[in-house]
Specification:
Layout lengths: L1 H29 L4 H5 L3 E5 L2 E8 L6 E5 L10 H9 L3 E5 L17 H15 L4 E6 L1 H12 L4 E7 L11 H5 L4 H9 L5 H8 L8 H8 L7 H10 L19 E6 L7 H10 L3 E7 L5 H4 L1 H19 L10 E5 L7
Parallel strand pairs: 3-4, 3-5, 5-6, 6-7, 7-8, 8-9
Antiparallel strand pairs: 1-2, 2-4
Length: 339
């Protein structure tokens, strides 16, 4: 019996060692691109000493719309909304957050909401854009809210798609990712491109959009050097800066559109109902049967809602009246749930 337990122990230790060493040995094989190799001829600007990647399309004389993606995402997520905005005549600026996409991945605990907000503002300063409409998804929605708190004069309107509005700390798994060795191993495997499809399916209620090409687009930034370490340092970073979003929501007075999936497994639609009661000038639209990534799951209704809101916001700021009271609207999404 003792011999059996000893053999089992040796096997278990060997497997654990393989998992640990596999993470360290496979990292340089997976993360084989530097930022320039990954992004090609795309655009970068240096903000506070960090290379921040962005795209800038459409006429520079047109109203600017700034797109801010969520956690573990990139500017790729905005391809549908970006096309719709460009077709409507807007200037569209999409920014890769620090640690994501083709932006820098510093190995230091600076990944706060405020740092990300300041970097987006730095990109706009470099481009000479004094004011814009902001659109953010998930954590990107939180960053957009932080911008509205820090620099309200820069924000014409705010559109937040299932924003991370109320969290005051990192999720539970972050405690494990902070640990030496184990944290790196968890970060490596949790950001594996092979798990991207599984992750997209988990957060989505409608899954018709999760094709091989889309999975490849979401996974591609994980091949940039420093991606695993960036996850570790994000877990080790404070959630917020001096003016945390959850405690300053009532300071966001700009016209705000909240878009939510009825079946969002990440931030429940109830958060939207709570937010619309706190924000002074907000309206909420819930998409039936949709999950966390509403702009992918219900592309046409989401694009239409954003375009209508931007047009209305522009008219309001030109002196026309806005609806007197924030409202809650439920929209039936265009496709049935695909489970």
């Amino acid at each position: 019996m003792a011999i059996t337990f000893s053999i089992a122990g040796v096997v278990a230790l060997s497997l654990a060692g393989s998992v640990v060493w596999g993470a360290y040995l496979l990292t340089p094989l997976r993360e084989r691109f530097n930022l320039r190799e990954f992004a090609g001829d795309d655009q970068f600007v240096w903000v506070n000493g960090y290379a921040v990647h962005y795209t800038d399309d459409g006429p520079h004389s047109a109203p600017a719309v700034v797109l801010i993606h969520g956690f573990a995402s990139s500017v790729f997520t905005w391809r549908g909304i970006k096309a719709a905005l460009l077709a409507a005549g807007y200037r569209v600026i999409a920014v890769d957050q620090l640690g994501s996409g083709a932006s820098a991945r510093p190995a230091e605990p600076i990944y706060t909401t405020q740092t990300q907000a300041e970097l987006v503002l730095g990109v706009l300063d470099a481009l000479g854009v004094p004011r814009a409409h902001f659109v953010g998804h998930s954590f990107g929605g939180r960053v957009a809210m932080q911008i509205a708190i820090l620099a309200p004069e820069r924000v014409q309107s705010l559109t937040a798609l299932a924003p991370e509005a109320f969290a005051t700390s990192r999720p539970g798994i972050a405690r494990w990712v902070r640990l030496p060795v184990l944290g790196y191993v968890l970060a490596f495997y949790s950001t594996s491109p092979w798990l991207v499809r599984l992750g997209l399916r988990f957060v989505s209620a409608k899954r018709h959009w999760i094709t091989d090409a889309v999975v490849k687009g979401y996974a591609r930034p994980l091949y940039v050097r420093g991606s695993t370490l960036a996850q570790v340092w994000q877990a080790r970073s404070p959630k917020d800066g001096p003016r945390p979003v959850p405690h300053n929501l009532s300071a966001i007075t700009q016209p705000t559109l909240l878009l939510w999936g009825e079946r969002d497994p990440v931030f429940p639609a109830g958060d939207g109902a709570r937010l619309v009661r706190i924000l002074p000038d907000a309206r909420l639209q819930v998409f039936e049967g949709a999950g966390h990534i509403v702009h992918e799951e219900c592309p046409e209704p989401t694009q239409r809602a954003i375009l209508d809101f931007l047009e209305l916001s522009t008219k309001t700021q030109a002196g026309l009246s806005f609806p007197a009271h924030p409202h809650h609207q439920t929209s039936e999404a265009s496709q049935a749930a695909d489970v």
